[in-house]
């Protein structure tokens, strides 16, 4: 499953500031059972809007990690709170099917 959220950087701060915090938190969160990686993307044309995607083996494993945050993870996340607004976009199941175009011939 995918957990997706939008991050808006407040004026006077940068996406790079948030990315540093996000990486530190992600390194710890990704040690949890079922964690399958994270991605952080900058919106084209709006460098202060990011989208974060966390991949998990299951919703239950993500929920378990969320219920058992370590104080260190909470501390890292709180350090970003003064300069970002985070809006969860939701939890999404893996697609039932994926369409990939055929490889281009060379």
UniProtKB/TrEMBL annotation:
Keywords: Monooxygenase, Oxidoreductase. Residues 4-61 form the ABM domain. The lineage of its organism: Bacteria, Pseudomonadati, Pseudomonadota, Gammaproteobacteria, Cellvibrionales. This is Antibiotic biosynthesis monooxygenase. The keyword Manganese does not apply. SUPFAM superfamilies: Dimeric alpha+beta barrel. GO terms for molecular function: monooxygenase activity. It comes from Microbulbifer marinus. It holds the Pfam family ABM.
